[in-house]
Amino acid sequence: MPVLNIAAVMSDDLARNVAKPSDQRDVHTYVHKESGPDGARILSIIRPAKYPERLRPLLNALSVGRVGLIEVNAVNATLGETLVAFASAGVTRGLAVVRNPEGGWIDEDQVRSLFAQAGLAQWTFEEEDGIHLRERLYDLMDELREELAQEAERGLVLPVDQHFNVRGIGLVAIGYVQAGTVKQHDEVLMLPANGTGTAKSLQVMDDDVPMASAGDRVGLALRNAQEGHLTGGTIIVHPPIDDARTNTHRPSSLEAHAASTVALSPSPFQRRTLQVGDVVHVSVDLQFVVGRVVEADETALVVEWEHPVQIRTDHPPTAVIAQLDSNPRIIGSARLERRA
Predict the structure, then answer these.
(1) Which of 2, 29, 82, 144 has the smallest C-beta neighbourhood within 10 Å, fewest atoms?
(2) Would residue 285 be called left, alpha or beta, if left means φ above 0 and alpha means ψ between -120 and 50 degrees?
(3) Predicted pLDDT at 126
(4) pLDDT (0 to 100) of residue 87
(5) pLDDT of 245 over the 90 cut
């Protein structure tokens, strides 16, 4: 079942017009499923309910979202930070809905200009209608079909955001498959603990499935795994293989960065320049790790991380650099290279 994950900053009532509420935690999810020419297709809206008070839920939604949906009901600092966040995360496709507040009016031309300045010129402005918005989101899914298929062919990257023991099933890890595919009976590796286990069974959208691919939110039941290996920030991958006897080679899909050279692209609305000693956070593949700038020049920073950041070895996504005492809190987008 193809899934399009949508990072959304919007009201609950507008989200409910587009899809049915599902999980309601720090990040609220809404799901709509309908049949297409090749079977069921799913829209999954991921809405950080505690944003703007908390930044991390928004960054987590942006780690997962392939397109965006923003409801504009005011032109203010929060809108500016929201636009910067989506642009810095590389969410260059999306839909905007302007909803005039009661007794007020929003200049749509001004809003369009802000989107363009932030780097979201490809976004389109749409009517406040749930059916219309679903149709437009399915159009975006069609545009991204090849890109989503390519993501499923890469090495497995499955960040875990929940885990628990279920009677009769055992240890279950839950998270979004960011890249690759995991199948029933696969051997898996839990980083950074280097714990091993086997995929006993999988569930996607409450259905038992033989495999889960990029975009799926999966419940992965594990056999021969220790709960202590599923800690905050765990990412499940396939173990690397280097067997000359059978000519079987599979590199690790992640590399750990204790320190990184950071090629930073500051946001157009950010006036602050990072200096040696500054504390920053990086958001990538649902990780949110604090670090300190130890070197800084005109082209790059060197940041030492409080604990290692796991970065994909194949087609790494754009990382977002944030500073929680800055305004806006998003500094910009970055590419990270491991520092020896």
Answers:
(1) 144
(2) left
(3) 98
(4) 97
(5) no
* Structural fold of domain 3-150: Rossmann fold (3.40.50)
Number of Cβ within a 10 Å radius of residue 61: 29
pLDDT tops 90 at residue 185? yes
Q: Who contacts 150 (Cβ-Cβ below 8 Å, separation ≥6)?
A: none
What is the Cα–Cα distance from 10 to 41, expressed in whole angstroms? 22
Which SS3 state, helix, strand or coil, does residue 314 take? coil
* DSSP helix/strand/coil, 338: strand
Q: Are 255 and 311 in contact (CB under 8 A)?
A: yes
User: What is the per-residue pLDDT for 164?
Assistant: 92
Do the domains 3-150 and 254-338 sit in the same CATH topology, yes or no? no
Structural domain spans, the chain: 3-150, 155-250, 254-338
Q: Identify the pLDDT of residue 286.
A: 96
39 pLDDT above the threshold of 90: no
Q: DSSP secondary structure string, 230-287?
A: --TT-EEEPPPEEETTTTEEE--SEEEEEEEEEEEEE-TT------TT-EEEEEETTE
pLDDT for the residue numbered 24: 79
Instruction: Tell if the pTM clears 0.90, that is, is over it.
Output: yes
Distance CA 64, CA 7 (A): 7
Query: What pLDDT, on a 0 to 100 scale, did the predictor assign at position 200?
Result: 97
Residue 329 above 80 pLDDT? yes
* Phi-psi sector, 37: left (phi>0), alpha (psi -120 to 50), beta: alpha
Residue type, 23: D
Torsion of CA 324, 325, 329, 332, to 10 degrees: -90
* Strand bridging mode 330-338 / 254-266: antiparallel
> What CATH number does domain 155-250 carry, 3.20.20.150, 3.30.390.50, 2.40.30.10, 2.40.37.10?
2.40.30.10
For residue 26, name the pLDDT band (cuts at 50, 70, 90).
confident
Overall fold of domain 254-338: Elongation Factor Tu (Ef-tu); domain 3 (2.40.30)
| Rounded Cα gap, residues 40 and 173, in angstroms | 25
